[in-house]
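During the reporting period the student researcher (J.K.) took over the structure-prediction task from the postdoctoral fellow and processed the backlog of single-chain submissions. One of the processed entries is reproduced below for the supervisory committee.
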Amino acid sequence: MTARAADRARYDRATAHLDAPVAIVDLEAFDANADDLVRRAGGKPIRVASKSVRCRALLERVLGRDGFAGVMSFTLAESLWLARSGFEDVLLAYPSADRARYAELTADPKLASAVSVMIDDPAQLDLIDAARDGGREVVRVCLELDTSLRLLGGRVRVGARRSPLHSPAQVADLARAVARRPGFEVVGIMAYEGHVAGVGDAVAGRPLRSRAVRLMQGAARRELAERRAAVVRAVRAVVPGLEFVNGGGTGSVQHTAAEDAVTEIAAGSGLYVPRLFDNYTSFRGRPAALFAQPVVRRPGVGVVAVLGGGYPASGAPGADRLPEPYLPEGLRYDSQEGAGEVQTPLLGTPADDLLIGDKVWFRHAKAGELCERFDALHLVEGDAVTAMVPTYRGEGHTYL
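J.K. obtained the following C-alpha cells:
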C-alpha cells in the first residue's frame, strides 16, 4: 500500500460516520508542516497569514508553538475581530477603505495597540483621519515596499502590482510624512515577494519554464535583498524605533530569513500545503487540508460523478486553479466539463472500484480559500476525528 493509499484508508475510517461533503485537517501533517516552517526560518519568528488558515482554533494552535508570533490579517474587519478575540499582535497586510472599522479602531485603546494597518500612500492617512469620528487613538502603520523586479529600465516588470513605493527614497518620504502627522506612528515595513514565494520553480513536465522561473527568482532575490536593506536603513534614519521588518512567504522562507534586514517572516499556506505548493525545489510539505465529495453516480465504465466540487481558487483562470482529485490516486477531470457547480465527473480506472456514497478526496489549489466553502473543519489524528472546529464562515464571518 502506498503512503497516499494509507492516508485514504485513514481518512475514510476517520470520517466513516460523516456524510460528505466534508473538510478535514490532518493534525500530524499540520504540525509537521509548522515544524518545517520554523526550521526554514532559522530562528526568526513567523507571522501567520490568516487568509491561508481562516480558522481561529488552528491559528491559536500554531501560535502556541515555538517559532510563531503574531497574525497577518487580510481585512480590517477581520483584524478587529481577531484583536477582540484575544490576538494581541495583528498586522493588516492590505490597505483598507473601511471607514466604519477605522472609527472603531481609533476609538478603542485595546484595538489600537493590537492592530497595525498597511499604507503606501498619504491619501490612505487622509481616509483614516476622515473616518475617526472623534477617535483619538494613535494608529500604528506599516509601510509596504513594492518588491517587483524591474528589468530593461522598467519596461519589464515581474511581480504583483501592489505598493507604488519601490525605492528607498520613496519609502523614507512616506515615513517622514507619517512622522509629521499627529495620530499616526510608523512601526514596521512589509515586503511580500510573491513572484518568489508564490511561484513554483519545478513544474512537472515543463523543464524550460521551471529553469526560467529559477533564474528569475535568483535575480529577484539578489536585487530585493540589496534594495530592502537600503529601504530599512533609510526608514530607520527617520524612525529609529522601527519594530519589525516583515518579508517572505511559504515558498521563500529560508531565503528571506537569511537577510539581516528582515526581522520576521510571513507564512500560512505552508501549514495546509495546497496543490499550488507542490512545485518547489526548496521544500516539500505534507498535504494537511483536504475535502471529500460523495460519489452520487456511475455514468459508465471508468467514470463516476461526485456531488459539487467546483471550488476554483483565485488568480488568473487556468487548470492549476482547480482542486486536485487526490484520493484515490489516478482520477482526473473530464476536459469537457471540469469541476462542476453541482456535479463533477471523474475519469480513470479507480472509478470502477468506487461505490455510490464513497468519498473522493480533493486538495484545494490554494490554502484558506477552502474554508469559504465549509462551516467546519474536522481534525484528524491517526484514523479518528478528535475535534470539529468552525471556520471563519462557521463563525458567521465572510470577510471578502
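The committee noted the following: The first helix runs from residue 3 to 14.
J.K. will present the remaining backlog at the next meeting.
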